[in-house]
Amino acid sequence: MSKSNLLVFGATGAIGSYIIAAIVNAKDAFNRIAVFTSPNTLSTKSAEINTLREKGIEIITGDVTKKEDVVAAFKGIDTIVSALGRGVIAAQIDLLKWADESPQIKRFLPSEYGTDIEYGPASATEKPHQQKLKVRAALKETKDLKYAYVVTGPYADVPFFLAASKNPRGGAFDVREKKAVLLGDGKGRISLSACGDVGKFVVHTLTHWDQAKGRALKLNSFTATPEEILAEYEKQTGDKWTVDYTPLEQLKKFEAEAWEKGEPDATGLTLRRIWTEGGTLYDRRDNADIGAEDTVTLAEAVKESIRAQLSQ
Ligand SMILES: NC(=O)c1ccc[n+]([C@@H]2O[C@H](COP(=O)([O-])OP(=O)(O)OC[C@H]3O[C@@H](n4cnc5c(N)ncnc54)[C@H](OP(=O)(O)O)[C@@H]3O)[C@@H](O)[C@H]2O)c1
């Protein structure tokens, strides 16, 4: 396959910024790299956009919901990588239809990069999965578009799993206070991905396309229990921490209340309940299939979390 021409959506977002950084790092593997963004982002994130321009990335502006803007951006593109945020997941349904109508576009990576939305039978009714499930269903209806889903589980980095929290009922590792709130009984294994590795996983998915296409790739950096993570913090900070727990049944109560009251962390609590129930664990991880075995370790992720929390 000749080198691809990429168009990335959501490149300045929380995970998109890691994905575009990894793509830039591997730019010799690609022919053209373009980013589609909004005029608003162009002015509010001008520093990030200028850095991308300096690195040779083409910046295309438009409205992601307007066919004429998007189809104009598709010119000369064969691969779409979407890292659009949760609020615009459903907008990808039009994007992929327009991509399917554009014969030059061959590959579409939708915005996944999280919990496996088809882990088991219960996944079909999980509230946070609904929009992404519709995107997967729409992708299966396309004629000529090939896809892959980059499934990574929770992110390890601050401000995600290995972070302090103003509302630690959903779990927290607070370096300044040396306090942890562990999910479940603290002994359940969770597979996490460092954000930098998520970027690498996307690059490896594109560069190992024969192995990746048509699959939900189950990728992660490392697997550990909350107790093992805490032990690593204690080792690296040289102190015993204060520990509390949010048992699974309590987590389910917090989750139900949050949805009932329309609280902003309802989605996060559902995902944390799924992780605590074992929803990130598999018989095998797929990293080797796409040559992405060299990943961040628990010790490295904790070291980075300590650095990030203390520099805040
Ligand atoms: N595994 C985990 O722990 C975890 C954590 C967080 C997110 N995720 C997943 O990662 C993916 C990306 O999420 P994110 O948090 O990185 O996204 P985000 O930062 O909220 O948004 C990413 C980009 O989407 C575009 N966007 C967002 N809202 C928009 C709107 N209303 N209209 C038009 N464009 C909009 C923007 O692109 P422009 O500025 O270029 O227009 C934005 O930079 C999602 O699938 C999410 O579920 C996973």
TrEMBL record:
Does Oxidoreductase show up as a keyword for this record? yes
- Alphabetical list of InterPro entries matching this protein: NAD(P)-bd_dom_sf (IPR036291), NmrA-like (IPR008030), NmrA/Isoflavone_reductase-like (IPR051609)
Keywords from the UniProt entry: NADP, Oxidoreductase
- Listed name of the protein: NmrA-like domain-containing protein
Q: Where is the NmrA-like domain?
A: 3-254
